[in-house]
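Dear Dr. H.,

I hope your travels went smoothly. While you were away I took the liberty of generating a structure for the chain from your last submission, since the lab meeting agenda had it listed for discussion. I wanted you to have the full record in hand beforehand rather than looking at slides cold. The sequence, exactly as received, is reproduced here:
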Amino acid sequence: MKKDKHIFLDHDGGVDDLLALLLVLCMEEANLVGVNVTPADCYPHSATEASRKFLALMGHSDVEVATSKARGINAFPENWRAQPQVINALPQLLNLSDEAGTLSPLEGSQFIIEKLSKSPQPVSYLMTGPCTTLVHALHQKPEIRHKIKEVVWMAGAIHVHGNVRTYSHNGSAEWNIYWDASSAHRLLSLELPLIMVPLDATNKVPVNLDFLRKLSQLSSYEVANLASLCWAITVNTIPGYDYLYHMWDVLAAVYVGRPAYFDIKETKIQISTRPPNEGETTENIKSGKVVRLVTDVKRDAFDEYLMNRLKRNFNNL
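The corresponding predicted structure, in token form, is as follows:
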């Protein structure tokens, strides 16, 4: 199949971010032009290493990975940030060389500028972490916006509770925005072709035991087995009595591959930049900025697409 969908992935190293990377590598039509790691929901060295090893396993060592030096305002919980270290300890990755894959010498924002500038056609910019590195790149070289076909961003909580749980916050925000709400506010003002995949949609795809049981039936495939192990380590990372782990970033990746499986709503939103609701995203038709929101997913089609993509073995795509 012709690789006619050019994708740049900007992620922040969590388990679901790395699984989004794995899924993109399983899309026959996808040409992954580069990967940036924003140091938000990760310790950047471990997340960069895991990204490079995923690429090596899938036969794409030529795809460069860069690490951003961006810094947010509100740090993710430390135990969440440590998850890439667990991924690197999985058998499939542990015996790979630390030099696997290709590390770009450029800082993340400069890397984004280079890859977008050199792309022969506009790219789908899949962003599964905070937007800070992209905002920095656009500030340095605004003309790269013409190389962005769309920004698909897993972010926000519009009509549902957020997933930020701190003593100083009212719980309305989603973490990818809360990490650096000021940059998120600036991103909206740039009026890019922005598709947001908020918690309103991702809440519909939990990583529960039924899902893991279905995935385990594909364990004879190397890629599905790796995905199963990655998701299994998330079961006790977020207490079920609070909120479950969900396929946040994987859902956003599937949108890039199959937008027809989703319901979309065009609206205007605003982002708060001050406590106690810093990072809250709300609809404001009068003074908000235009975005397209993913509101729902055709779950059966999503499951079938995901499972079929994961029926792969390493270096056999």
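Two observations you may find useful: The chain is about 35% helix and 20% strand. The first strand starts at residue 5 and ends at 11.

With kind regards,
E. W.
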